[in-house]
Design the sequence.
């Protein structure tokens, strides 16, 4: 197998496995009422101060309209609260309720376990190389994403 074929196979497998495994690990009995995508919306909202809908939409790389539908569901299920800004009534902020904070912590725990496992398999020299390679992958995909938007 050529280097290109090996890289392609590894990348395709990595992306597929991350999506599958993270989805399976996140959507547990406790959080069976929300989706893999909902966890990422909860992650984008975060546990700090409320974020505007437009900020969360940008983080998620979706339209505000698309996000609104998902936030409606998370609000109905008791994960998120939506409130208009007192300073500017046009701005709608979203923040996590306790159930949302619990889901956020569950998601964070998955990521901490994943990182600990990866770091545990690498030596001191390999970790910065992996970080460098992953940063290059992100750069490539961000360039590709912005190129597609311009077309």
Sequence:
């Amino acid at each position: 197998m050529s280097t290109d074929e090996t890289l392609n196979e590894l990348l395709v497998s990595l992306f597929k496995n991350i999506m599958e495994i993270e989805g399976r690990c996140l959507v547990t009995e406790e959080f069976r009422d929300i989706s893999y995508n909902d966890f990422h919306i909860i992650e984008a909202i975060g546990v700090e101060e409320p974020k505007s809908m437009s900020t969360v939409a940008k983080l998620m790389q979706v339209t505000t309209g698309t996000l609104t539908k998902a936030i409606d569901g998370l609000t109905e299920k008791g994960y998120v609260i939506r409130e208009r800004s007192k300073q500017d009534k046009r701005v709608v902020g979203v923040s996590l309720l306790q159930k949302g904070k619990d889901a956020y912590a569950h998601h964070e725990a998955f990521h901490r376990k994943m990182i600990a496992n990866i770091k545990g398999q690498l030596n001191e020299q390999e970790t910065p190389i992996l970080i460098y390679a992953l940063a290059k992958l992100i750069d490539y995909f961000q360039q590709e994403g912005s190129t597609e938007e311009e077309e």
